[in-house]
From TrEMBL:
Residues 1-35 are annotated as: Disordered. It holds the Pfam family GINT1_N. Keywords: Carbohydrate metabolism, Membrane, Transmembrane, Transmembrane helix. InterPro entries: GINT1_N, Glyco_hydro_beta-prop_sf, Glycosyl_Hydrlase_43_Enz. Residues 82-339 form the Glucosamine inositolphosphorylceramide transferase 1 N-terminal domain. It comes from Erythranthe guttata (Yellow monkey flower). Signal peptide: none annotated. This is Glucosamine inositolphosphorylceramide transferase 1 N-terminal domain-containing protein.
């Protein structure tokens, strides 16, 4: 771009014309018959200089466009997201029901009565396309966790970044009971893979405990400007735990998670528990750890937020028997103390 003034100068009577005038006196005087010949020579030289400059500067411009502008075009294409991914093509849906054991997809529940809509609300409500269209290129979205403030729902989820090929934590907002979602952006982006953004409130603060096992530890972040700004509060465990959550139960806090790095551990078949007086720790291991080290189809790996229904605590687990994330199993927690645990399968 800095060469453009030079082109304008040569064509408008700048230094280029002065250079030709200085050479026009060579080989004849200005009034003789040789003058016309010299003039033609001058004009020919000027024309040749102009053409030469045009070709050189044009070549420079072409190279610039090829290596700089074309890179932006390629980036724009990549920013579309939803590329083929070896991890699958996950999306997020919303389900409603009178109980956690009687759920229907959002299209079967009249939560939005906007008759002016071009089409009815239907699952999936968040996909790689909806996130990519908002300017955050994604190959898939997964691991959704809801957080509610009044009538506003926030959904935190893993998004597979199309460019970096690693998981970041995205967040979307809904003010119509989950019918439509506005993408707010990336809430957390580290130099390592993130997923499973377990969000909870404690003592007036909002915390996020994402899975970041690639870093080799379990980290707790606190919101400094909810929902998009988070800062590291503390490393609560020096273990590469996968898909962990924290629950309060009978005056104590319990942390459920899987560590696939130990010798003899069955991947997606191991589950361990820790307990503490506070979600901030320190954490002590359960005496019966690992409480599961079984077949991966049995739901040992956590599958979402635990919940209480009719006074009873339940935990969800992933059935990864035939394929990863094939289905969810629900467990009723009958007894949970620092020394004893007893979980039974209540629904497949």
């Amino acid at each position: 771009m800095g060469s453009s003034p030079n082109v304008a100068s040569a064509a408008s009577g700048g230094g280029g014309w002065r250079w030709h005038k200085g050479n026009s006196s060579i080989g004849g005087n200005r009034n003789g018959s040789g003058n016309g010949k010299n003039e033609r020579c001058v004009l020919s030289s000027t024309f040749a200089y102009f053409v030469f400059s045009f070709v050189v500067l044009g070549s420079i411009g072409s190279l610039y466009g090829r290596y700089m502008l074309a890179a932006n075009v390629r980036t724009g294409i990549a920013a579309q997201g939803c590329e083929a991914d070896s991890e699958g093509s996950w999306a997020v849906g919303v389900y409603y029901g009178d109980s956690p054991f009687s759920l229907k997809p959002i299209e079967a529940v009249n939560v939005w009565k906007d008759k002016s809509a071009a089409w009815p609300v239907a699952n999936p409500v968040i996909t790689c396309a909806s996130l990519s269209d908002a300017g955050f290129p994604s190959n898939f979205v997964a691991d959704p966790f809801l957080y509610q403030q009044g009538d506003t729902l926030y959904m935190f989820y893993e998004t597979k970044n199309t460019i970096t090929k690693q998981g970041d934590i995205g967040v979307a907002q809904s003010t119509d009971k989950g019918a439509t979602w506005r993408q707010l952006g990336i809430a957390l982006d580290e130099d390592w893979h993130l997923s499973y953004p377990y969000v909870f409130e404690y003592n007036g603060n909002i915390y996020m405990m994402p899975e970041g096992s690639k870093k080799g530890d379990l980290r707790l972040y606190v919101a400094t400007d909810f929902p998009l700004k988070w800062t590291l509060d503390k490393i609560i465990m020096q273990k590469p735990l996968i898909d962990s959550f924290i629950i309060p139960h009978e005056g104590r806090f319990f942390l459920f998670g899987s560590d696939h790095s130990e010798i003899g551990t069955k991947k997606n078949g191991q589950l361990a528990i820790w307990h503490s007086d506070s979600p901030l720790g320190p954490w002590k291991p359960h005496r019966k750890n690992p409480i599961y080290n079984t077949d991966k189809a049995m739901g040992a790996r956590n599958g979402g937020r635990p919940f209480v229904y009719k006074g009873q605590l339940y935990r969800t687990g992933q059935d990864c028997g035939e394929t990863y994330g094939r289905r969810i199993r629900v467990f009723k927690v009958k007894v949970l103390t620092e020394t004893i645990e007893y979980l039974i399968l209540v629904q497949k």
